[in-house]
Amino acid sequence: MRNMKTITAALAIAGAATVFGAVRFADFKQDMAAKVDAAGKTNASVVAGSDGWLFFVPELRHLSVGTFWGDDAAKVSRATSPTKADPLPAILDFNDQLKKAGIDLLIVPVPAKAAIYPEMIDPGTMNTESTRLDSSDAEFVGVLKQNGINVLDLAPTFIQYRKDHPDQPLYTKEDTHWSGYGIDVAAYAVAEVVRKEAWFPGVPTMKFTTATAPASLTGDLVSMMSGAKPGPESVVLTSVKDDKGGPVQSWRQSPLVVLGDSHNLIYSVGDDMLAVSSGFPENLAAKIGFAPDTVGVRGSGATPARVNLARRADNMAGKKMVVWCFTVREFTEGQGWSKVPVIKAAQ
């Protein structure tokens, strides 16, 4: 009977956690909506949080809208057309194209900064694996998996990492993108998947060298602010060099494509991306032994990224896997999700 009581108690706790999680999400969703509304009254793109943390208003809006696919998509999406509001059909279509060509797809949505560090925008709030504040994103991951899409949900990994490494923030305070630590964690998680692919052992590899050091950077959110602005912040980055001591270059013949938004360019290509050879593609290369073929775009990683891939007009010849990495706010805040004929049928 003791075991039965223990099981019953555990189920009761689980049920309570589910209810509590729903309440927590509802409160957090309402708080994010209120902050978005307040920002809209002054046309602000940035909301200042605690301890110098800055947050992008479209990201907060994404976290506030709830279900964003199916019949609800057109109600909440900022897409240019209602027909482009639902991300699911476009994702399924892309996966089907790749599958027919013998190419695997791995979707890697980058969690919202406010979902991983909610207490910095909503004091007293905390995200957990069992009671996700970003529950709509978590639910959509489930929908994708039910439809046969391979998805790497980074949120649970990020939540656990910040718990174990409180002094290693996964995002920068002043930027919309992840930090060097966030890149390292994501690159490790993706590398674990890539290394299990049947084609992986046949790829020629090289020895990359890495060096980790702090850099003083001013993030993109600072430029969006009006009035007094904070100075640069110290961000720890891991730079990667190839076997000749040079920067890692995108490898056009690589069997692995890294596709998506500026999360694939930040700290990688310089200029407004702040640093070079220290981004996600380079750190992934160091972990798998070869450089990916990077197709990253400034802006939307949804439709424009796939359009760039289609413009190559090579039907993805020689490719074995696509890692599609983009921010979760793209699900609702971008221009929309169109079907793009990346791989065209033979005439």
In short:
By secondary structure, the chain is an alpha/beta fold. The chain has helices at 2-40, 57-64, 73-76, 87-100, 113-116, 135-146, 154-164, 180-194, 220-223, 280-288, 303-310, 330-333, and strands at residues 46-48, 54-56, 104-110, 150-151, 209-217, 233-241, 256-260, 293-296, 321-327.
What does this structure look like?
By secondary structure, the chain is an alpha/beta fold. Helices cover 38% and strands 14% of the residues. It is built from 12 helices and 9 strands. The protein has helices at 2-40, 57-64, 73-76, 87-100, 113-116, 135-146, 154-164, 180-194, 220-223, 280-288, 303-310, 330-333, and strands at residues 46-48, 54-56, 104-110, 150-151, 209-217, 233-241, 256-260, 293-296, 321-327. Strands 4-3-9-7-8 form a 5-stranded parallel sheet. A two-stranded antiparallel ribbon has the order 1-2. Strand 1 and strand 2 (54-56) form a beta hairpin. Helix 7 packs across helix 8 and helix 8 packs across helix 10. The radius of gyration is 21 Å and the shape is globular. 46% of the residues are buried. Residues 1-23 have low confidence and may be disordered.
Sketch the major β-sheet.
5 strands, parallel
Basic shape: globular
Q: Strand fraction band?
A: 5-15%
Q: Round the Cα radius of gyration to an integer and report it.
A: 21 Å
What structural category characterises the helix and strand content?
alpha/beta
> How many H/I helices?
12
Low-confidence segments: 1-23
- From the N-terminal CA to the C-terminal CA, the straight-line distance is 69 Å
DSSP, total strands: 9
Order of helices and strands: HEEHHHEHHEHHEHEEHEHEH
